Structure of Glutamate--tRNA ligase:
Amino acid sequence: KSLVLKGLAYPCFCTAEELTALRDRQEKDGALIRGYFGKYAKCRNLTYEEIEKNIKEGKPYVLRFRSNGDENKRIVFDDMIRGKIEMPENIIDEVLLKSDGIPTYHFAHVCDDHFMRTTHVIRGEEWISSVPKHIALFKACGFKVPKYAHTPQVMKTDETDGTKRKLSKRKDPEASVSYFA
């Protein structure tokens, strides 16, 4: 609610079909970045009256973060394992709450870590690309940004063909035991 009142979040009434058409248009336009942002974010600038009308009509909606990132600017953060990392600022208007009211991982990460007083986030390297959006959300909420450490994935060599794949607790019952032994 606080983000909406500050103008940092807004309801988006786009249907799955409209979002598919948006991705098709971005592909046709040759857009380097794909997602809901800038000229592609049609619900971003709806008036209060339009929003109220859509809600009264019972149109389903998600709540999106109004990113103020600039695709021409870079964000720099210190990863405790990888050192200084520089990436483009987040420009995507990420979904915060799904149409069923359930928060997305990105929003839950920020809220949970703030209220649980998490100071260090240690997670797999596949989450590095999410750091700019997480930092933007922490700052928009007025929360202290935690320190990040991104670990390499633990891989297993397939004995049949020598390829590597992520070690899985579901496929590899010995995963944790053999790794830490």
Summary: Residues 2-155 form a domain with the Rossmann fold fold (CATH 3.40.50.620). The radius of gyration is 20 Å. The longest strand covers residues 74-79.
